[in-house]
Sequence to fold (468 residues):
Amino acid sequence: MPLPDQPAPESEVAAATIGTTDRTRRPGVVAWALWDWGSAAFNAVVTTFVFSTFLASSLFVDPDVVSAAGENDKDPELVAALATNAAVVGWALMIAGILIALLAPVLGQRSDGSGRRKLWLGVNTGVVVLAMAAMFFVEGTPSYLVLGATLLAVGNIFFEFAGVNYNAMLVQVSTRENMGRVSGFGWGMGYVGGIVLLLLLLVLFIQGFGVEGQAGLLGISTDRGLHIRFAILASALWFAIFAIPVLLRVPEIPPRERAVRVGFFRSYAVLWATLTKLWHGNRQVLMFLLASAVFRDGLAGVFTFGAIIAAQVFGFSSAEVLYFAVAANVVAGASTIIAGRLDDRFGPKRVILVSLLGLIVAGSSVLFIGSEQLGFWIAGLILCAFVGPVQSASRSFLARITPAGREGEIFGLYATTGRAVSFLAPGLFALFVALSGDTRLGILGIVLVLLAGFLLMLPVKEKQAVID
Fold:
């Protein structure tokens, strides 16, 4: 595991960690990173590659429309019906994003002051697992679409809430000297966990083996998406198991004696006071939150629309998309772990800027590689090599400039700002596609968002914030 043998100086440890010792920090890192490993069950399976794709499939379209279309997947009525279903999912996720933006910073702030950061990580993770388990009951028929979209939204809300507390715990398992490596190790574990889980789901539940009406080595019926629903249920169990170690091995933060216990709505006044102090005392945090909100939306665009481009422009089948997903996780996991060392050596800002440049160049290259799948494999894997380092270094950067004891509050703001401009990449992608009639040109919208994030990141300084 990429951790240094020597601890940081005592003063730095005191500033960067709470409630840990040198003896427990190393196993604490592994326990903490296993949550990232398990979270692939939601990120990769539910949000990106399996459940969301399931909801967007023709199973949730009126059977009469599907029958009339036959083998013509370009039938106007079928295309319109699929677009309507996608809109339902989009509206659900938009509502989820609004709730996250409104609630995440306050909930993070309150967990800091109460000394219950780990407790709320467990509660929020538990709700995500329950939402995933309930997805088993979403049958592949039109009448279940709203239920599926609702559960997807609920899962997203509580996954973001859990992420606020989980990210804030980075300072409890690392020192300022190894923070980049620990953050990179966690992200890398998430990607590796995604690889293992996707392969298991492919083999056991999803991949067809020539038996009509059945899928996977377990031979589960494909009627109404039963094989997909079992895959989601298995993923819920996966997340539940690997979320346990962080709750057992990482010590809880102590309550802040100076923290004033206020009501829920009064917490917004405390939040406003924090923003005011940041504006007057250290604007670097706010500048970074703005820059990261933009480029993280670009990263979300890469994940959300990459599979669409692969399928529509390069002719990837559903199984080929999942095979690419496995390869993408391998590349992203390895590059993220390596980038963690570069983070500690050269600083997270340099890692972020270099990675954003790599994403911009690789994304632009999609416009010039023809329609052969090999071209997408090359460009796509290069993209994935830079995605993980940006995510990991962003978490490390914010943890480094956040005052001790305010991690939950600031990472709550991080979650909020990440949703504040979440319309940029989808909107520009759709605009370029609509104007050109070519799905490939949608990548321009994503590249423009990444470029804007790069430019906003340039003036941000790596400076420790001080908030009274």
The mean pLDDT is 81. The beta strands are 214-215, 220-221.
